[in-house]
Design a protein that fits this description.
The structure holds two protein chains of two kinds. Helix content of chain A is 40%, strand content 2%. Chain A is mostly helical. Classes of the chains: A mainly alpha, B mainly alpha.
Chain lengths: 692, 141
Amino acid sequence: MDRETRWYALFAATNLLTLAAFAVVISESYFRQWKTYQAGYGRIVVEKKQQRVVVREIEPGIQQVWNPQLDVMDRCTSCHSGVGEEALADAPQPFTAHPATAHRFDEFGCTVCHRGQGLATTSQAAHGRGRLWEEPMLPGVHAQASCGQCHQGSSVPEAYLLNAGRRLIEKAACVACHEIPGLKKPAMIGPDLTGVGSKVHPYWLYEWLLRPKNFLPNTWMPNPLMSEREAGLLTTYLLSRKEPKLEQLYSAGLPEPTPEQVETGKRLFREARCISCHAVEGRGGTIGPELTRVASKVKPGWLRAWLENPKQYLPRTRMPQFSFPEKEIAAIAAYLQKELLDWSLDADKVAKIEAALPPASEAVLREGEQIYKKYGCGGCHTLQGSEPKGKLAPELAGVGRKDVDRLDFGRTTIPRRLWDWLTLKLKQPRAFGSNLRMPSYELEDPQARLMVTALLSLTGRPIPPRYLPEAPRLPPASIPGPFGRILEKYECLTCHQINGQGGTLAPDLSFAGSQARPEWIAAYFRLPYSLRPILPERMPLLGMSEEEIRTAVDYMQMVLLSDEIPRDIPLDLREPGLIRRGQDLYNQYACRACHQINSAGGYVGPPLDGLNRRLYPAYIYAWLKHPRRWRPETVEPKRNLSDEETAALTAFLYSLPPLKGTPLESLPAPLTALTRVAQQTAAPGGAHAARR
Amino acid sequence: MRLAANRFLLALLLASVGLGPGCRRGQTTVPPAQTKTSQALTYQGSNGQMLYEHYCAVCHGTGGAGDGFNAYNLRPVQPRNFTDAEAMKQLSDQDLFTAISRGGRAMGRSPLMPAWGSTLNERQVRYLVRYLRTLSTQPRS
């Protein structure tokens, strides 16, 4: 080839290459992935038509959901054409129908919940799984995290996994060290350690620090993962913190418990229902610590003083101050000391451990205090003089959206994704480096997964005002006066709720005055009995004085009322016709599946004999109409009863006599606590019309 | 010489045209269905599980075998056993939906099964039906 031709050839070649490049680029823009999928969808429409199932056809082209307020421009439906078609529930992806959910995706788009890149039109880019998009699509198991961006609190409707995760985070008290938006640090997480040296046995403290779950398998205290040497130093330091004023009392020698005392104590322990809050051998409540081996933990003098007045040692405890006389306290303490021991403890082993603890010299105490600060014990526990200064751990606001490039994966080889990092962090907190200090909760896989879901909801994304859910109600101020003092003394709000404040273990007392008869309430305070046999928790026997009982009952009758439950309902509940109709309805609706009358029936709900001794008829009426209004967690179904049916059932239930020999028999039978309404004042129609 | 160069250039041209369609990204075939036999429950399944354990397990048992705590009291008909795959095959999803939302009476069976239609909304009943199906296909303790 001569020189000229060579230049011409080169020029032609570069032109052709440019043409080729154009051809490639243009064809790439023309032969798009979504067109393939839309063609596939078209085939499915035809297929379904042959099966006589109607599936909507789509307009060809990019489909888009645009919501400017949520900053959403999602093109997911270009490929996922079948999301709205119920008939395609079992179709292969990407044509599968979306499960029915509370929010319509044609209004909310897809990325609000699923994350990913909404503007993209190829699956790789849209799912955001590459390195270039900061918010990749969430895996299905964590999808409920997005609900938590707008919905605060731990009872978000239909976000069961998120709720469970949030509850675990509350239980684990992560707020002790990490600041979490929306969660306030409770007043007391772990017990106050200021006088702990006077309370516990030395070997117990050492073993506890090495691994708390060895002593209490269900404890929520995390394992500080310290070496044996560190544990020894910290034990000595903590043991030096004694309570000088009460030291005398705690170390006082007590007489050896007699067998009669132990028997009495056992009986009292059972009658006072301590296991409602404290589990023994796995059975019982979880509000207080398990007592299976308590005598191996605490000194007997301390135990005795605690039973007498818990608030003397720990002012913010949730344990009520029972009003036992001194002999009974001695008996209960004797029982606990003699029976609830760690039987596997070897006296030699104990002696060896205690001998190995470092003696309390200046240097040892200083080092012990360093260790206390190093592991951040001050996050959960109070210790006068060693309060933590500054932040113990990074705050968790925005952790749900944290950029993967800012996370330290250490030497691990897990996939480089935010949720994988969080999961490993929760399961093995020190996996990413040897100088980390987060303690280990020894979480199981499902628990860690749930907590990661809850953490992923902390994105810190601002919510547009139109989409803000209802503002949370402010908590009410504490109740003043004598009733308030009773609530404080007996810590009623640990289990019960009043006007939104308190626990959910026991019934809501906000409307107790409209619900239950005062004589029954008073009798119940004097001797609580079990209303529902299948529940393990029972109200403890508090030993309240008569004056306290009168104050509480009067307060309930005057203040804790609901305007939706009138005191008297204008209906004659003694009419035999009405009662018979009620009995027919009782059989028709087969209430005996869950309730017992005269020992026949199920025991899911309380037995209904003698209901009139306990409840007001208007409450029974209101309950039958809408049970979950009064008790959100009840299992009783709402039956959509008419007024007439409800009245008949109320009359029937109100007529049931108490069983012979039960406490209800001793309560006064209700008088005609009903008013007959004269004909002329009757409201037209409905069961509230007067009956002659 | 020229002829060879021309043929070479022609070949290049044809090749570049041929590149276009060959550069189609994306799949021409639809990927296979996501099988639902994985151990973890789907969104609907886990919602259904939460509802089941709150409302149903006390009679039907936590494993769905009809041996719940209260089943002892239900005479003469015991609660249905959901782990019996043969029996469950005979019931359509619509049957299950009706039984849950309108009660046993609406199916001509024992009135001891209450009607939950006023307590649970339609979506929740569908979640339950989904979960009940998994009890016969993925047994759990």
